[in-house]
Design a protein that fits this description.
Elements (H helix, E strand, L loop, with lengths): L17 H14 L5 E6 L5 E6 L5 E6 L3 H10 L2 E6 L6 E5 L4
């Protein structure tokens, strides 16, 4: 079940409203549950990039109308923990928390 999402904000034509973007993020995370790590970044204009890296090194990514801080908060609520940052970058790296 998706986490609650913020109310949609007005956006320019062709851009997913915020609520839709969070649903797309939820679907992306569901499709890539087995990913070894998730990295996130943004362009400082509220366009975020989420990249999933699988065991075989294959990468899948999605661009969303959510900034890095919004994506980071959503990942923490969804059971991920930040494990580091990419050197010389604003990108953050997350892994799914494992149950003890």
């Amino acid at each position: 079940m998706p986490l609650p999402v913020p109310k949609a904000a007005n956006t320019e034509p062709g851009v997913l409203p915020t609520g839709d973007a969070y649903h797309k993020l939820h679907e992306f995370l569901q499709d890539h549950r087995a990913a070894q790590q998730i990295s996130i970044d943004d362009d400082h204009y509220q366009k975020g990039l989420v990249c999933a890296v699988n065991e075989d090194g294959k990468r899948n990514a999605v661009v969303l109308n959510i900034d890095r801080q919004g994506i980071s908060s959503y990942l923490r609520q969804a059971g991920y923990e930040q494990t580091g940052k990419v050197p010389d970058s604003t990108a953050e790296i997350f892994k799914r928390q494992t149950s003890q």
